[in-house]
Amino acid sequence: MRRLLVLGAGTAGTMVVNKLRRRLDKEEWQITVVDQSDRHFYQPGYLFVPFGVYSAEEIVKPRQRFIPDGVDLVRGEVDRVAPGGNEVLLADGRRLPYDYLVIATGVGPQPDQTPGLLDGGQWRKSIFDFYTFDGAVALAKAMEGFDNGRLVVHIVDMPIKCPVAPLEFTFLADAYFRQRGMRDRVELTYVTPLPGAFTKPIASKRLGSMLDERKIAVETDFLVERVDDKTLVSYDEREIPFDLLVTVPLNMGAEYVARSGLGNELNLVPVDKHTLLAKAYPNIFALGDASDIPASKAGSVAHFSVEVFTENFLRHVRDEPMTGSFDGHANCFVESGDGKALLIDFNYDTEPLPGRYPLPGVGPFSLLKESEVNHWGKLAFRWMYWNLLLPGRPIPLPAHMSMAGKHPEE
Ligand SMILES: Cc1cc2nc3c(=O)[nH]c(=O)nc-3n(C[C@H](O)[C@H](O)[C@H](O)COP(=O)(O)OP(=O)(O)OC[C@H]3O[C@@H](n4cnc5c(N)ncnc54)[C@H](O)[C@@H]3O)c2cc1C
Predict the structure, then answer these.
(1) Which label site among 29, 62, 136, 138 has the fewest CB atoms less than 10 Å from its CB?
(2) Do residues 143 and 176 lie in contact, with contact meaning Cβ atoms separated by under 8 Å?
(3) Which ligand 1 atom is nearest residue 296's CA?
(4) Which domains does the chain have, with CATH numbers?
């Protein structure tokens, strides 16, 4: 029996085992997937929980439900990979041998990496995050109780998963306070380590002007050194006081990646950005957020890259060259408040451009432009996630980015 072992049954790991179980002979291949938790969280839903749009129950389901017959789901925490011995050790002492390994344990927020965030006495009192389920639920209460003062939305450093999520939170907060008739009592500030609202110039300009229109102050190039009680302090000694801080802590890969000597300084696995094969080992791949590819850390990237990976993997295990090349394709809806959203579609080489998606002229989604249809697309994504994406069903969207419908000149 040949053994494929997948670490992490989140977005990428679940898609992979579903797709490969259909394609790999059951007599020849054993597939095992490991995860530390038996609940699968729909992370894009965390954005909406603080505004009361989704209840917690709508975004959590039992993990086993998405694992197909013929795949063993092992509940356990990965402690270490021994790449020399082709073996994975779990924290409880179990050992899982493999012939091929897929690392898909994602990234997570690490508030302990910024002095004063977790240990300054304000965590979950006046400092919150929405990048975890518990954080989003706790923040919902804090938002409900907030009736005036300085709300600061803040990113510690890039890369983070879903790099537009903090912007979306800010737009939604603006709309939420307007709907509650108290926007004039809230000072909203967006604090980012980037030189602008987003990583890519055209989108950054568009999103930056949306912050201006909403009278949201922006503090750029802000590299936080520490949090002093209720003040953010940067390395260049700027100070930003807050009453309520919504922060996105440093995002890092799982610690076992570092312990196994497989990661960079953020515990991300260095891979070839087109095949996702680890640079150091010919039988280890890293998919989803866990790798160091210079693409957005997003479910859409996990989806498009898994499509390319699946075909490549089938060739690789036959000792044939991998002919598929992942282009970094990402697309993300950006909620902008009042029932509207934008859509951005881009890859390693092409930044988000205006236009229509997926069909030129027809859309129905508009690129870099607010519309209600985009908002409904964002909400419909939850259904697609549970019913199409995770089970690895075909979705009529090409894995590679297309220039059709895009207008570089606008
Ligand atoms: C607030 C927020 C909003 C987002 N919005 C969007 C969006 O609108 N669109 C979009 O495309 N993406 C969005 N994303 C990003 C998207 O959720 C992630 O990019 C995607 O889930 C990555 O998939 P993954 O499989 O790499 O990691 P995950 O889905 O995070 O899965 C990793 C799995 O590994 C497991 N694991 C980790 N460490 C260990 C260990 N040591 N042992 C065992 N198991 C382990 C975890 O339990 C988890 O199940 C958002 C994310 C957040 C936080």
Answers:
(1) 62
(2) yes
(3) 19
(4) 2-109+252-316 (3.50.50.60), 111-251 (3.50.50.60), 330-389 (no CATH)
Name 173's Cβ contacts closer than 8 Å, sequence gap at least 6: 51, 143, 151, 153, 186, 188, 246
Ligand 1 centroid vs 358 CA: distance in angstroms?
25
Q: Give the atom of ligand 1 at the shortest distance from the alpha carbon of 256.
A: 41
d(CA 14, CA 17): 5
Distance separating alpha carbons of residues 143 and 128, to the nearest angstrom: 10
Dig out the tokens for 356 from the structure.
């229509």
At 195-205, the pLDDT tens digits run 999 888 899 99
* The ligand 1 atom nearest the CA atom of 10: 31
Query: How far does the centroid of ligand 1 lie from the alpha carbon of residue 290, in Å?
Result: 9
Other CB atoms within 10 A of residue 373 CB: 14
CA 364 – ligand 1 centroid, Å: 28
13 C-alpha to ligand 1 centroid (Å)? 10
CB atoms within 10 A of CB 196: 17
